[in-house]
Amino acid sequence: MFAYSANRTDSDSEILLWNYKLNLTTDPKFESVATEVCKSTINEIKECNEEERGRGYLVSCLVDHRGNISEYQCNQYITKMTSIIFSDYRLICGFMDKCKEDINSLHCGSINVGHKDVHSQGEVISCLEKALVKEAEQQDAHARPIKEECQKAILRVAELSSDDFHLDRHLYFSCRDDRERFCQSIQGGEGKVYKCLFNHKFEEAMSEKCRDALTTRQKLISQDYRVSYSLAKACKLDLRKQRCSLDTNLPRAREARLSYLLLCLEAAVHRGRPVSGECQGEMLDYRRMLMEDFSLSPEIVLHCRSEIETHCSGLHRKGRTLHCLMRIGRGDRNTNVDGVCQSALQTLIQSADPGADYRIDRALNEACESVIQTACKHIRNGDPMILSCLMEHLYTEKMVEDCEHRLLELQYFISRDWKLDPILYKKCQGDAARLCHTHGWNETSELMPPGAVFSCLYRHAYRTEEQGRRLSRDCKVEVQRILHQRALDVKLEPELQKRCMTDLGKWCSEKTDTGQELECLQDHLEDLVSACREVVGNLTELESELYTFNFSVCLPQDIQIDALLIRACEPVTQAHCHDVADNQIDTGDLMECLVQNKHQKEMNEKCAVGVTHFQLIQMKDFRFSYKFKMACKEDVLRLCPNIKKKVDVVICLSTTVRNDTLQEAKEQRVSLKCRKQLRVEELEMSEDIRLEPELYDPCKSDISRLCPNVAFGNAQMIECLKEQKKQLSQRCHQRIFRLQEVEMSDPELDYQLMRVCKQMIKRFCTEADARNVLQCLKQNKNSELMDPKCKQMITKRQITQNTDYRLNPVLRKACRADIPKFCQPILNKASEDSELEGQVIACLKLKYADQRLSPDCEDQIRVILQESALDYRLDPQLQMHCSDEISRLCAEEAAAQEQTGQVEECLKVNLLKIKQDTCKKEVLNMLKESKADIFVDPVLHTACALDLKHHCAAITPGRGRQMSCLMEALQDKRVRLQPECKKRLQDRIDMWSYAAKVAPAEGFSDLAMQVMTSPSKNYILLMIALSVCVLFLVGLLCGRITKRVTRELKDRTYIWNCYVYWLLLNICIKSKILKSPFGHLQTPRER
């Protein structure tokens, strides 16, 4: 190595020194010495053996191949000659001839001896190198390009100086101090000093002059990998094995490019082919180098210049400029990058391949270091799963803002090329080649561009065995993982962003928070343009399928639902769904569990909102409910073709099931597995009115008017509308009535009832059929063990049932013959979807008092009478006609928390004070009903319970029999009744007497009943008997005295006498004086 003097020598000395060095390289003596010393080496190196002798080319060739020289003496000789040759570019054989014109045209110096300091000739090569780099970055059509042979010569000089940084004269003098500062302990040779300086390039203490020289050197490496001694040496054999430089169809310049080498070797690594660890280490260093400094990629400098100047100036170091461009590419600054720039960024990301090792991206590595140490510490450093782990912790407490931004910027570009996710590529490369006709890792196809491959994969992810061409299980899991991550940000789904830009601007311009854009598009699914609607529909369908699979990414717990939702729902999952969450079976049980536990105390607002959104989106298309789709798709195609909305499909299938059940079909048309899942869907829909659009849409105005502060979930809104039913609009009222009709026939669909009475159902109704749950609860309503809240809910449902017989399926079935027989006028006036306000039941009550109902119907009306006798609210006619009187006369009784018949008793006691005729009539009807059955009068029954047990135990209840027994006991002086019972009975007799005056008997039955309950019953019966006998005798006498009476008149008199006799007999039988031998009262004709 020549030592350079600080002072310049005179021109003559310079000429003398130059000529001396030039002669050294061209003197035949030196060539002959080389021939002697390196004889065996020359024979081994074919290129050198073929060089023309006498022109100095042999020595130059040996210098070029000095890395392959194994002879010690030859190596020492060539090393000395190298120092001489590289001291001046003009001494490098052939260089001066090839670059003379370019040196002059670029004004890089003069080749005339003495014009400049020849010892500063390193600046000339530096000038040419910079010009070469600038030409690649600018591609100016008006500039004179460097000749190709000179370009090769420049790169050749850089290559020859790649092992020892002393040989790069410009860089050596620019970085002498920096070498001492940063790389003092690094020995020269094999490019070690270069690598050390590269690693410290962005240190604050690095001089700008050295940094510029290093950048130029790196740019040359990006144009020809052989300029890096360590990379060329480490990967020489691998390049040959992987055939990365054998394609004769490609220009040599392209094969030598660093990006080409990296892509070729990365493809081999991703395919699982062996690449030496030393080579992979070198590749990692240079991939990191590309990500750190955007200027090393000429395409970025050329095509992204305006974006860099406008948005990213001053951010050159540590990859910040590149991330700034990525952020613009994402559209985070409300601006878009040029398509060519976007393509250049995508190419650079592919070359650097940061998805394989996050450490390649220095900006990301530094920003996310704390997150990795806390959230992903269980994953090996440099593992590709680190990026997935970071994505899983996006928007969590462990994520920091800077890391979040850098991560999304990188993921935006990784999501646009499926190959950039190494785990996905590894698991799916076979499936992609088989199903999507992809080529190699570093090869693209116009028919199947990188962005379309993932779309192809997820289209095949959920095919059935019958459809064929399915993904392998490993690939399917990875597709699910990617979809799971992309759900966090709409910009991570290329197809969605491409087709939905207009709709995003139109409907979702204000929805910019996490996950809001996709939710917004789902909410406006019907309003989207067809292309956008299709892709949103497909994504939503796949999203619903994602919720059904368990897969572990980087978190220790199972990930089953999208990241945000699973994190929000962790408390309720651990408390109520941990068994389901740990289940590895492909089912949607976890989401069903979350839906069922939406209102547990562990459920927070975020989880509830997420689960509800999931349910609301499912309603738009039955395909969005994975379990429902899989269980019922065949039934839907067969029974409900051309129906897409889930609510319509549910209605269609449930109607089919109901019809088959009512018609007692031999075989149900809906399959068993579908019926089971249909029940789940119906139960979920009953929880939130928004899940039933057919109900929600007509009731929107009523909700805002009547229930503005009521929450939607927990069926609270539906309950509010039920309570405000009389004030609802007609359409909403009709829908609520239909809903109640369905719920009463199938109480399991009554969400509030099932929720409030859950424990009571377990206690009292475990053996009851699901459709008889309400009936069971009603029977146990007055049990001491009954929960007060459940009892209150049962009362609400009883009040509802008594407004219309159609809401009481048991009564409807029992009285199906009696209702049209006795109450047809009421039915004729009624509309189909509005309540009858208890008119039909009131009609049946009157017929019960007249003892004209069928046995089954009589039993049900008796139950209703007994229930309403204890609680006036269960009698809609009484409540409607007597509300004012109750407020005036019985306010204290009505305010009682526990209703035990106080209000009814108050109205009876104050019968004379009642002003309204309609109310008075209702009270009189109550009195009439109480004659027929003492159980209908709870106050009297309570007072006379002991007397009934002692004196009337053998009397069958009903038809006034026990009441008659008590009345007889009251008249019998031998029987001593309880004082309270005696008092109450006397009160009732007075009331009945008043009722008889106010409301005279309407028929023979009423008359008979009044006679039987009269205190002078025996006297009346005796007088009637005497009257009949006298009339009979008179008739006989008149017949004998008046023989002229015609036969016709005699018959008429006989018939009349028989009828009176029949009436008397009827009365006697009721009073137990006589008993019909046929078990029923015989007509006069039978007599």
TrEMBL record:
Keyword Transport among record annotations: no
Annotated source species: Sparus aurata
GO molecular function: fibroblast growth factor binding
InterPro entries: Cys-rich_GLG1_repeat (IPR001893), Cys-rich_GLG1_repeat_euk (IPR017873), GLG1 (IPR039728)
PROSITE patterns noted in UniProt: GLG1_C_RICH
Gene coding for it: GLG1
Protein name (record): Golgi apparatus protein 1
Any one GO cellular component localisation term in the record: Golgi membrane
Transmembrane segment boundaries: 1019-1042
Keywords associated with the record: Glycoprotein, Membrane, Repeat, Sialic acid, Signal, Transmembrane, Transmembrane helix
Record has Signal as a keyword: yes
A family per Pfam: Cys_rich_FGFR
Superkingdom as given in the UniProt entry: Eukaryota
Compartment(s) where it occurs, according to its Swiss-Prot or TrEMBL record: Golgi outpost; Membrane
UniProt main location, coarse: Golgi
Residue ranges of Cys-rich GLG repeats: 145-205, 274-333, 398-465, 470-529, 602-661, 669-723, 727-785, 852-915
Topology term for the membrane: Single-pass type I membrane protein
